[in-house]
Design a protein that fits this description.
By secondary structure, the chain is mainly α. It has 5 helices and no strands.
Length: 178
């Protein structure tokens, strides 16, 4: 029944939520705030075929009403206002959903980085690093990719930690001991 619980159908929460907490979660997903539940339901519905077909229906109805209303300014204003309001609200709902999904993906990647032996722990929470540090790490990955490509099939698993920093980008903490 776990799959049914995740998809929103009525079912008992999984056993790990019996105490109100899911694994590594402050709250069991079933105990989300009211706004979160409503926002997710609207976002899910807005991405459905029913919503798309409904929007097509509204536009067709508006087009049919054009001759009836004499293609008046009010007729045009109706669709312009309606689409502006819906677009304005959907931007915030979509951004909220995108932020939540991005945060979840970052947490999953952080878990994988932490769990994989030899992975660079510097990359945990990489999304919070400044642009210069991200550029430096990106250059290191580019160097690593070139090294692996030059080795061909003889390449072994490597970490960005094995690629030395270019001297121009080295800080005092990165400098080799004297």
């Amino acid at each position: 029944m776990r799959g049914a619980w995740k998809t929103g159908r009525k079912a008992d929460p999984p056993a790990e939520c019996a105490d109100g907490l899911g694994p590594l979660m402050e709250k069991c997903p079933a105990q989300k705030g009211r706004f979160s539940q409503i926002a997710e339901a609207i976002t899910h519905w807005a991405g459905s075929a029913w919503a798309f077909n409904g929007a097509i229906g509204v536009i067709l109805l508006w087009l049919v009403m054009g001759p009836v209303c004499g293609y008046s300014d009010t007729w045009q204003l109706t669709v312009n206002t309606g689409t502006s309001v819906v677009t304005f609200l959907m931007v915030f709902l979509i951004q909220r959903t995108q932020n939540r999904d991005t945060r979840a993906v970052h947490l999953k990647l952080n878990e994988l980085i932490a769990a994989v032996e030899g992975a660079s722990s510097r990359l945990i929470n990489a999304e919070e690093l400044d642009d210069q540090t991200l550029t430096t790490i990106s250059h290191q990955f580019h160097s690593l990719a070139q090294a692996v490509q030059s080795q061909g099939k003889a390449a072994r698993a490597s970490s960005v930690e094995e690629v030395p920093l270019p001297e121009a980008e080295m800080t005092a903490a990165d400098a080799p001991p004297i």
